[in-house]
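Hey, can you fold this one?
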Amino acid sequence: MEKMRFLMASCAGTLIYVIVSLLGGKDGVFANRQLEAQKALIVAHTAEVQKINDELSLENEILYRDSAAIKAQARQLDLISDGERLVKVNGLDHDTLPLHNSGSVLLRQDIFYLPEWVCKLFGVLVFVLVLLILVLKDFARSPAAARIKSESAKATSGAQTLRAQGIPIYDMRKI
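Sure. Predicted structure:
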């Protein structure tokens, strides 16, 4: 009976450990959903960066082929060519818009999951709890019922018992 109690408690503890690990562990369902959401965000961000790359590639081709485009780009960068004079006036607000949209920074988000030791702790706690409940259940049985069980087990093993005013008397064979 003690082996059965221990076996049932260990099965319950293992089952809880597996369920907690499957749902909240490092490779569990909850962590997988967070990773899938980050993957969708990265795919959307990749499409945005690809669009910016296509625009910059087109602008690069235009700058290689058209000298007027090169001059216009140099003016935006406040560059001057030979023979030109640059006059800067203090006090006027200079329009400082960026020339190119380079996209936004996408940082990796940490994934929340239960560490392995927490999952094992849940399993051990359930094991101890179930074992304690089963042991207390055996102690809660009435002593008379336990005595009758033990007497019936002894009677089936070959020893005969006699009762005299509630006290068991054992009939031992003489050698």
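The chain has five helices and two strands. Let me know if you want another pass with a different chain boundary.
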